[in-house]
UniProtKB/TrEMBL annotation:
Keywords: Cytoplasm, Phosphotransferase system. InterPro entries: HPr (IPR050399), HPr-like (IPR000032), HPr-like_sf (IPR035895), PTS_HPr_Ser_P_site (IPR002114). Its main location: cytoplasm. It comes from Paenibacillus algorifonticola. It is found in: Cytoplasm. GO terms for biological process: phosphoenolpyruvate-dependent sugar phosphotransferase system. Residues 1-89 form the HPr domain. CDD domains: PTS-HPr_like (cd00367). This is Phosphocarrier protein. GO terms for cellular component: cytoplasm.
Amino acid sequence: MQTRVLTIINEEGLHLRPAQVLANAAGQFAADIYVEVADGQEANAKSVLGIIALGLEKGAEVKLSADGEDEEQAVAKLAELFEQGFGEQ
């Protein structure tokens, strides 16, 4: 299992558009991928509604985890999206 702690940098948080970008990117990997917040709530990163339900605002820290054959590539690619603000920065 690969994990990385990331911070939401988007001014509007993880609203619909960046959540869709994340879910689409996560869907390209075979690994099981989850986004978890500090209080323990987690969502499947391949689910737009699950991601939005976490209510991630700017500055929120999340733990991105992937488990499966391509877990390293998944975490690397998705962490890059977080760090680039999902193309909004």
